[in-house]
User: Which sequence fits this backbone?
């Protein structure tokens, strides 16, 4: 009996061990199957085609035509405005920059030779009596003009740098003693801060006392000395040699640098004589502006009134158009004309401002389409 019980216990133990072993083997097999998936066990996805997106076509904008150069009936019959900036994008960028001069800003250049005390002493049209000179200066001030110097005018004409909306350049020709400036112009410097420009003749016979007086005025800062040639009394013409023209241009530069410690930027053509070749040589010498004796009108940014052919009513005025460089042949009013043309000059400024405003949207659209990627936005 004891043997039978022992056998039964042994048999039951063996069966338990066998069952445990089979259970472990099944768990291991299932575990391996769950972690070692074959490609056929991975889930599959079916790609469903969708509508293909077509690229949006770029809209090509056609730039509008720019307006024609501002015209005014207040110019003489033989006078037309000329521009000098050929890049339309550059011009519009400078024109509409809010930190620069507003459209319609202009400068009126006035030429002085002698200001005489008595009416009977007037001998030609380039003179003015002291009484009329004072009246002219007061009228300019009352009508909102402010005097500028040559550097300001050059910066305005070249890049539309800010100047007073109604500016005047008071340009005195030839050599004068300090008394002339002190009795005629100093008052306006002290009262209004008005500058005056002197077209200085750098002739070798200039007296030392005159040099000393001019140097003292230059040191005060209100008389702006510019070039008016060396020999001077032989106006430049088509018969002038390059040697003569260069001496007039560079001789002035050397003398003004020596005595006034500055380099002139303007040539006031001696006797009003100039040629295309002379203007070219002036540019090569570093001059930025040139002035004639021709009273064509005021000047504005990228807008200079010039004649392309001789005016039979004014044969002394050489046509400037053939020069091809408007900034080297700027017009000047004679003092006897100023009071009679002030209204015309102011009207031209107002008309130019109105014309610009009328075309503002067109010019901005043109700039946005063709220019902004090159010059950037207008501030």
Assistant:
């Amino acid at each position: 009996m004891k043997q039978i019980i022992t056998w039964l216990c042994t048999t039951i133990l063996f069966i338990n061990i066998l069952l445990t072993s089979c259970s472990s083997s099944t768990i291991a097999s299932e575990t391996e199957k769950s972690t070692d998936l074959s490609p056929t066990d991975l889930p599959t996805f079916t790609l469903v085609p969708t509508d293909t997106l077509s690229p949006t076509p770029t809209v090509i904008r056609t730039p509008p035509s720019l307006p024609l150069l501002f015209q005014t009936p207040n110019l003489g019959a033989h006078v037309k405005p000329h521009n000098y900036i050929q890049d339309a994008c550059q011009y519009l960028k400078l024109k509409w920059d809010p930190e620069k001069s507003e459209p319609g800003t202009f400068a009126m250049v006035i030429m002085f030779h002698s200001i005489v005390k008595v009416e009977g002493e007037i001998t030609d049209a380039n003179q003015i009596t002291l009484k009329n000179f004072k009246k002219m200066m007061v009228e300019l001030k009352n009508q909102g003009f402010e005097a500028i110097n040559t550097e300001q005018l050059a910066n305005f004409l070249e890049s539309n740098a800010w100047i007073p909306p109604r500016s005047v350049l008071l340009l005195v020709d030839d050599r004068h003693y300090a008394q002339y400036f002190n009795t005629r112009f100093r008052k306006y410097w002290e009262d209004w801060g008005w500058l005056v420009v002197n077209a200085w003749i750098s002739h070798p016979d200039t007296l030392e006392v005159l040099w000393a007086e001019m140097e003292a005025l230059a040191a005060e800062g209100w008389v702006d000395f510019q070039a008016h040639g060396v020999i001077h009394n032989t106006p430049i013409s088509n018969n002038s040699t390059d040697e003569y023209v260069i001496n007039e241009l560079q001789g002035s530069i050397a003398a003004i640098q020596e005595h006034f410690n500055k380099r002139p930027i303007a040539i006031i053509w001696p006797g009003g004589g100039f040629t295309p070749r002379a203007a070219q040589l002036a540019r090569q010498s570093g001059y930025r502006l040139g002035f004639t004796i021709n009273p064509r009108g005021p000047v504005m940014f990228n807008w200079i009134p010039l004649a392309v052919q001789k005016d039979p009513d004014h044969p002394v005025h050489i046509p400037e158009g053939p020069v091809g460089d408007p900034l080297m042949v700027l017009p000047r009013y004679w003092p006897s004309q100023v009071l009679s043309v002030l209204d015309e000059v102011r009207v031209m400024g107002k008309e130019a401002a109105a014309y610009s405003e009328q075309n503002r949207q067109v010019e901005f659209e043109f700039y946005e389409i063709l220019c902004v990627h090159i010059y950037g936005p207008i501030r």
